[in-house]
Amino acid sequence: MDIGLHRRAGRWRQTPQRPPDHATTRVMALCLLGVVAHPLCYLVWHRLWPENYESLSLRAVAVALCLVSLGARRFTRRGLKLYQIVVFSYALSFFFTFMCLMNHASPVSAETLLVSLIVLFHFDMDIAVLSYLIGTTLACVAVVLLGRADLLLDPAMLRQLPIEGFSIAALSVTKVSRNALERERLAGLAAGLATVAHELRTPLISIEANVRGLVRMLAESPVPIEERIARLDALNRIQFEARHMNHMVDLFLLSATAVNRNLRPTESVSMAAVVEAVLRRYPFASCAQQHTVAVEVRRNFHYAGQEELSVVILLNLLRNALKAIQRAGKGRVRIVVDGARAVPRLLVIDTGCGVAPANQPLIFQRFFSHPPHQGSGIGLALCREIMEAWNARIRCVSRETAYAIFVLEFPPSKPLTGAP
User: Which of 39, 69, 305, 336 is most buried, most CB within 10 Å of its CB?
Assistant: First the structure.
């Protein structure tokens, strides 16, 4: 099985693409829509119902920029953000603002500009605002360079400005409200987990204490040795389950408190030390389950982060891997610390049930869980949020029913500014 695992991991290393996450999928879908829509719109507004001004060359540039999205799966997260700014600045902000100006804010051009802004501000606010400012400025500059500065003061265009401003403000408020509601839901979930965890801890401690007392009493009783061993085995099992539940309480509390924690990197963390701490703290259900996990330290590395949050990340990944093995009824887990590369990384590999292709873009979305209603759906989303706060990256490469590889890539360690 190890040979097969090496072969699969080798095939993954030779493949530069990655499964698209939700943000990549949205960008690709919008750009492919632009590839189809621009030629059709040109035919409609140039041939069927002609507008005063149309430009095949400007639409061709927009289509060319949109076609670049076909390679979006190869982009890094930073590269994807840069691409979004470029394509949105041109294809959504500049193009439609320029067309609206050149057509004297005709009903068609004004409405398409408004639609483009609504689409734009459904993406991340920082990308949307920057793209809007860049594209609008370039459109105004282009009109001036063409000797049509008078279009900037066209009454129809000036009447359009309040509508644009109100639309942008309304979309921004809606997005802020949605984010606030999501944070509130997370905070409520965290508080609920913490309350349940604390309520569970007291009876578990009581159970474990009573079991210890019963074990001592049984050891001193004159019961036949065979019967005594059987009873001790049962009591030891109860004690093990109580300790296991106590560890699970610790894991829930750790994840719950991490939701509201400052994620900024504050210390230099040793990855090998984190892996060791996780294996020491994880509540394995049995020795057999513990033996399914193997660790390979090719070379240790340090990175800017927080050790306790690093433990949260790896605990969640290990828990998911062991659950995948349990669902599949087969498999093993390998944790590989690989600091010998230019980009240090940690691999968490399981040969369990894998991730279905339809679910791969969704697994890092908050509140998504599979199978449905099993788990809170905050684990992987929290992992990605922490990693992004550290300027690091987490992604998944998987084949359904065969394996899942979670890849955590970290920037080379640098001295932390303002770290304690």
Answer: 305
What is the residue whose two structure tokens read 């887990």? 333
Q: Where are the beta strands (DSSP E) in 100-180?
A: none
Residue 34 buriedness (CB in 10 A; 0-12 / 13-18 / 19+): buried
Q: What are phi and psi of 374, to 5 degrees?
A: -115, 100
Strand partners for 395: 407
Mean pLDDT, residues 337-344 taken together = 92
Cβ burial of 120 (10 Å; 0-12, 13-18, 19+) is buried
Helix (H) or strand (E) holding 46: none
In this structure, of 63-67, 131-135, 218-222, 292-296, the range with the lowest mean pLDDT score is 218-222
Buried/exposed code over 144-182 (b: 16+ C-beta within 10 A; e: otherwise): eeeeeeebeebebbeebeeebeebbeebeeebeeeeeee
**Amino acid (one-letter) located at 334:** R
Under a CB-based contact definition with an 8 Å cutoff, are residues 113 and 159 in contact?
no
